[in-house]
Amino acid sequence: MSQAYEELTTRLGEIVDLGQAAAVLHWDHRTMMPRNGAGARANQLGSLSKIIHTKFADPELGKLLDEAAPWAEDQGYDSLEASLVRVVRRDYDKLVRVPPELSAELARTAAIAEPVWEEARKASDWAMFQPHLEKLIDLRRQYVDCFDPADEDYDHLLDNYEPGMKTAEVRTVFDELKAGLVPLIADVVERAEAVDASFLEGDFPIDAQKRVEGKILADFGFTNDSWRLDETVHPFASRSGMDDIRLTTKHLPDSLSSIFSSMHEFGHGIYEHGGDRAFERTPLARGASLGFHESQSRMWENLVGRSRPFWQHYYPLIQEAFSSQLNGVDAEGFYRAVNRVRPSLIRIEADEATYNLHIILRFELEQEMITGRLAAADIPEAWDAKMMEYLGVDVPDVADGALQDAHWSGGSIGYFSTYALGNVVSAQLWQRISKEIPDVYEQIGRGEFTQLREWLREHLHQHGRKYMPKELMERVTGSKLDPKPLLAYLRGKLGEIYGL
After folding, report:
1. So what CATH class is 167-498?
2. Strand 227-231, strand 245-249: pairing
3. Domain residues of the chain, as ranges?
4. What is the reported pTM?
5. Which of 37, 259, 276, 426 has fewest C-beta within 10 Å?
6. CATH number of the domain located at residue range(s) 3-147 in this protein
7. How many CB atoms lie under 10 A from the CB of residue 146?
8. How far apart are CA 409 and CA 397, in angstroms?
9. Which residues are known to be catalytic?
């Protein structure tokens, strides 16, 4: 082994360790930490961010990359060594442009803003959160200014979550989605009476919800020795190692949304859990992009968890848990109800079809925020206008409008588009899965997920960040990013349910 490569991996291992320690602090921040701990946690995360940044941007690490590159390339393009040097070189070249003080200030400001956002949402008070968002937007503009001009400023922020993707490419995909979804949703809304979902609103004891989701997650592959599930305000998945996977959910006493939220977060967790173990303590041990990450969460939540075979198998479990609420409802009726299309306020509660319009709305607003065309004070009004234009929904208060998501409070501007990109990717992946596992839905109907999970591990999860997202898409599906399979899937499913 090259001495330079060996020294490189030692340094990277230490950096990854620090990042995973920060991940635990972030998880605790959003699940366990007392509210008054926010100030101290902000300083801790800011300090860790600065240390990580400084260690990664060290010129000595750049020299090691230069020295290790020829030897690593000799190992072959697909090798761990060549892939690690290639990926870290790209990360390094980006990071050295950003002052460590800016990274620290972003982390510190986000840690302060997140609990303020929680309180602002409870109070439905945009003015409480607005100055924190203004500072985060300003810091993100400072980040953009660290780089050479791109086609669009937003490209630099998008690249943090979807490497190599351009804003214009996403816009093209989203324009095709909008063109297909808006009339489809309009047709479905005209036939709203075809689906009765009234029984999904009622009294659903949280203990019973936990038993149902516990059984489902265990069948999916959740084990207590490598995973945990906790409560939070806004569900997320976190990891501090391939065998330390932390899911969160939000239980509501009058809704079954947590069951789907838990399936969603499982998709994120299994992606992190299924990486090549040789990648542990390296920057390769993560998903290729957030679009690919969302493809996994949306796949387990929707393509699996909202399928007819899934509920033919699991309906007796949920009917037993909520016998009074589901009295007189059969498995087919429940399947149709959980696939109801109804334009609504809340993104994480949205159906498969309207969900994408929630994302497009946010994608468009973020671009205007970064260019300065939209001031923070005007975001609620712009949000409400787009909700009416795209979904025909009137927003009653800012808590269920521009304050509903945690992402901006964490400084994650550029993130939202990956949710809808994940839907697109999931449908393309499912096309290939259906060809290579023709009885996949029969297996799901028996509560069997091993072959699906192993297919995903072999073709996607094990590769971590070895390949850029576009290259990985070509390798796994044989095609470029294409919204047509998602639109075809939705037209077929909803056409059958609503008689279109």
Report:
1. mainly alpha
2. parallel
3. 3-147, 167-498
4. 0.91
5. 37
6. 1.20.58
7. 14
8. 18
9. 265
The DSSP call for residue 349 is G
- Residue 244's alpha-carbon distances to 33, 110, 127, in angstroms, are 19, 24, 38
The amino acid occupying position 409 is S
Length of the chain: 500
Tokens 């300003």 locate to: 138
Determine the pLDDT at residue 364.
96
CA distance 340 to 317: 21
Owner of token pair 């924190």: 132
* Cβ-based burial of 381 (10 A; exposed 0-12, middle 13-18, buried ≥19): middle
Q: Report CA-CA distances (Å) from 247 to 305, 337, 497.
A: 17, 26, 32
* 283 in Cβ contact with 465 (< 8 Å): yes
Q: What is the mean pLDDT of each run of 10 residues along the chain (500 residues)?
A: 94 97 93 90 90 94 97 97 97 93 91 93 97 97 96 96 96 95 93 93 94 97 96 90 95 93 97 96 96 96 98 97 94 96 90 95 96 96 95 94 94 94 97 97 98 98 97 95 97 94
User: 């576009």: which residue's tokens?
Assistant: 470
Question: Which helix (H) or strand (E) covers residue 196, if one does?
Answer: none
Cβ neighbours, 10 Å, residue 190: 11
Q: Cβ(191)–Cβ(497) under 8 Å? A: no
Residue 155 has which token pair? 């490209």
